[in-house]
Design goal:
Helices cover 55% and strands 0% of the residues. It is mainly alpha-helical. It has one domain. This is DUF3995 domain-containing protein.
Length: 191
């Protein structure tokens, strides 16, 4: 009799595996903060890309010479792409792919993300970014002989928002940790 019920309920075979309980949605402020992070790195990346294309971007003729080499251009291009990709990773802390690996990724696709696997690098990144950009508000107190006055103002303005990157990432990371801390024990038995 039990078998017949199973067949009626699941005519194509055995019962499907239960889906995990829906996760707690991130707070709206965390989603907005993660989205803002992706925009913070954009102005500096575009500024460096302009330099890669040969535009002095506020540097004097002599100040631009070190940046007008193939090695420098490759470095600036790599740095711009890497910064934006790292900024985009913050979205994983507020999107479903930050809790379950997307299915299209080979081998591990569809598996749950262990919360600490996201929290530890994100927290380390938040601390590092906070330390790296902490002195940026002092930009105008230092001489910049290699920049034109307009370039000095432009560079100072486009780099100032990066001061927020570390603290915002830290706040979003804490939010992610709080939302997923209950699932840590569920993932300990996952292969």
């Amino acid at each position: 009799m039990e078998r017949m019920r199973t067949r009626k309920e699941h005519p194509t075979g055995p019962a499907p595996t239960p889906t995990p309980a829906p996760s707690i949605p991130p707070p709206r402020w965390a989603v907005r903060a993660a989205q803002l992070i992706t925009l913070l790195a954009l102005p500096t990346g575009l500024w460096r890309l302009a330099m890669v294309c040969g535009f002095p971007s506020g540097y004097t003729e002599a100040g631009f010479v070190p940046f007008d080499t193939p090695g420098s251009k490759l470095w600036m291009l790599t740095l711009s792409v890497a910064c934006e990709l790292l900024a985009l990773l913050s979205l994983g802390l507020v999107r479903p792919w930050g809790e379950t690996v997307p299915r299209w990724i080979p081998v591990i696709g569809g598996r749950p993300v262990r919360p600490l696997a996201a929290v530890v690098p994100a927290a380390a990144g938040a601390l590092a970014l906070t330390a790296i950009w902490a002195a940026m508000p002092l930009w105008w107190t230092y001489p910049h002989a290699d920049l034109t006055p307009t370039g000095r103002l432009l560079v100072g303005l486009i780099y100032q928002p990066l001061v927020l990157w570390g603290p915002l990432l830290g706040a979003v990371t804490v939010s992610y940790y709080r939302r997923t801390k209950g699932s840590r024990t569920a993932h300990t038995n996952t292969p």
